[in-house]
User: Fold 3-oxoacyl-ACP synthase III family protein from Kibdelosporangium philippinense.
Amino acid sequence: MSTGTALPGEPVDNESIARKFGTDANWAEAFIGTRQRHFAVDLNTGQVTHTLADLGAQACAQAMARADLEPRDVDFLVLGTSSPDALMPATVNLIADRLGIDQVSTYQLQSGCAGALQALDLACRLLDEEHLIGVVVGADVCVKHLVLDQKTNSVRPASHVLFGDGAGAAVLASELVPGSIAVRRVLNRYSGLSRTPGQVVRWFGAADLTQPEQPVEQDHKAIAQRVPLLARQAMREVLGMAGWYQASVSYLLPPQLSGRLPQRVANALGLTDVTEISCVADVGNAGNALPFFQLDRLHDRIVAEERAIAIAIEPSKWIKTAVALEGM
Assistant:
């Protein structure tokens, strides 16, 4: 596995958010824990600077270059996102076009934070004698769901400080090579039967624009309570699938919904002798990009025979995902 990442523009800190929206910068730092994020628009003008296809293509190109791959070497492309550029054409095909990839299978998964690992799950299943190399990308442009042209009526608008934009990618191959990361097992479970969604992101068509509903709704209390529980379940289940003991894990890549949540998850898991790899405090909740940002950081640390567990939880309808990784 080789990795690549892409972030739009310069980082936007909490002070800049406070000036733009009239929020409380100290509250954002203390209770959300996210210090900065990157946006695919210019906050001052509202001008779009990067599309999802822009960011996805950049991340894929970097991952392919690190793996010394040409477009003709790629057998399939999988994208996980909650914020495609349009309903049609699928953004995954725009990314393929920019990369010069043609005559291959492409897949686009519509999902929130867990979509990156769902895409990884699908990619692992696609590898076979005919499909030797695939590229998996997770990307989101969350800023499109935020209202940018007015002051908020609250000093605590969590959405404005939580979210960010970005893309990450990984190259998967059926043949493992020294220095790479092996995917040993992937857990992908829908766990929301009869449960109220913890997050709703609405898609507004032309006929919906007169409706007063907000684009994004989140049940922050439910998320804070349920995500650590689902992460604990995911850890236990993926360890069982891999046949590993918890004590054999050297690295934890916890859910990245907010800057404060990873530590809550680590505490819930009872892990004391592992290295936590988190990045959300520095890049914001960039949705499906975040697990690949974590994998990118892991790639430079993990050595042969070391083990890692990555966990992603989607609160929209409570999906738990996890992957067991091992250095080669």
Summary: Residues 220-242 form the longest helix (23 residues). The first strand starts at residue 2 and ends at 6. The domain at 181-327 is CATH 3.40.47.10 (Peroxisomal Thiolase; Chain A, domain 1).
